[in-house]
Amino acid sequence: MTPKEALTKKVWAVLGATGRKEKFGYKIYACLRDHGYTVYPVNPNVNEIDGATCYASLHDLPEVPEVVDFVVPEAVGLQALDDCKALGISVVWLQPGADKPAVVAKGKELGLEVIQDCVLVQI
């Protein structure tokens, strides 16, 4: 799947979302939201972002996203890939920095569509 194809999907989760406006976890969440996507912030250490509920895990979301955008360290990304597989989420978008070789390899081993790119550049 190409980045452009993934961007046609309208329900996303941003893993590693944050309320800190200078961080990419916020910029990506806000960009998707402001471009009309249904986007769920996921971060166990944050309660809300700009008034929206921030969820502790992918399992806590009110619906299953079509794409999960990763803005997290390697260990968190590796665990989240298992969550994606368990929930039937087939498309994972790894931001620069989240696209460690072990995360890419595990995503492919699990049969997921792995995109390595920057959402901010593609939108």
TrEMBL record:
Lineage, highest ranks first: Bacteria, Bacillati, Bacillota, Negativicutes, Veillonellales
Pfam families (UniProt xref): CoA_binding_2 (PF13380)
SMART domains: CoA_binding
Originating species: Veillonella seminalis ACS-216-V-Col6b
Name the UniProt record assigns to this protein: CoA-binding domain-containing protein
Domain of life: Bacteria
Domain CoA-binding span(s) in chain numbering: 6-98
